[in-house]
Amino acid sequence: MKISVFLPCRAGSERVPDKNMKPFAGMEGGLVKLKLSQLSRVHQIHKIYLSTNDSQVIEMAQSMGIANLVVHRREESLATSQTSTDLLVGHANSLIEEEHILWTHVTSPFFDEFSLSRAIDMYFEARCSGYDSLMTVKKIHGFLWADGKPFNYDRSIEKWPRTQTIKPVYEVDSAAFIAPKSTYDELGDRIGRRPYLLESTELESFDIDWPSQFALAERLYADKIGAK
């Protein structure tokens, strides 16, 4: 069963200018080059489909010499800040022919080749247990409120319970979504009706969305590389 990657990467980041190609921790080619390098080392991946409207990204990606990389120039109508994820689901479905699709993002620099390989193995294992897809999540143990009241603990029972005893909630960290292509066909979604929630570590789940997060990720990455 072949699994291929959908890696969306549009030009024109509004929160972090040139986020995709901006040098990251001294690395030219930035987050795109880092993610493509990670993906190229995952042995289970059949093809890597990079979907972008950024000419600089296309030129850099093609220069990397990755044998299983497919670079697709995305239409501008599918590369605006208003483009919905639902529309990209249809785009990914039309682009990829393989039986299973792994959707990931360059903004998850710490979800590396080892994390990706583990996620793929866990996906196929989970399918044998009745799950139909997989997505990575961050477990949250804490006092969470909504609409003026707590929603993951009961103050009428205990006003301030130990956080370890609070029922956890899970935040989708967008590091990886894996599902059969048939799910894209039938549900128009990148997960099925019963996804397996794969818990990421705190570092794996780090997602870059703001300038401060980009700067922090650079420091963390430099520390990580320096520790090896």
Please outline the helices and strands:
Elements: E1 3-8, H1 30-40, E2 45-52, H2 55-63, E3 69-73, H3 85-95, E4 100-103, H4 113-127, E5 133-140, E6 145-146, E7 149-150, E8 169-180, H5 181-187, E9 195-199, H6 211-227
Parallel strand pairs: 1-2, 1-4, 2-3, 5-9
Antiparallel strand pairs: 4-8, 5-8, 6-7
- What is the 3D shape? globular
Q: Return Rg in Å.
A: 19 Å
Q: How are helices and strands ordered from N to C?
A: EHEHEHEHEEEEHEH
- The tally of helices reads 6
- For the termini, the CA-CA separation is 34 Å
What structural class do you assign from the helix and strand content? alpha/beta
What portion of residues is helical? 25-40%
How would you name the oligomeric state of the polypeptide chains in this document?
A: single chain
Keywords:
single chain, 228 residues, alpha/beta, seven-stranded mixed sheet, two-stranded antiparallel ribbon, 6 helices, 23% strand, globular
What does this structure look like?
With 228 residues, the protein is an alpha/beta fold. The chain contains six helices and nine strands. The protein has helices at residues 30-40, 55-63, 85-95, 113-127, 181-187, 211-227, and strands spanning 3-8, 45-52, 69-73, 100-103, 133-140, 145-146, 149-150, 169-180, 195-199. The strands form two sheets. A seven-stranded mixed sheet has the order 3-2-1-4-8-5-9, sandwiched between helices. A two-stranded antiparallel ribbon has the order 6-7. Strand 2 (45-52), helix 2 (55-63) and strand 3 form a beta-alpha-beta unit. The longest helix has 17 residues, at 211-227. The radius of gyration is 19 Å and the shape is globular. It starts with a strand and ends with a helix. The mean pLDDT is 95.
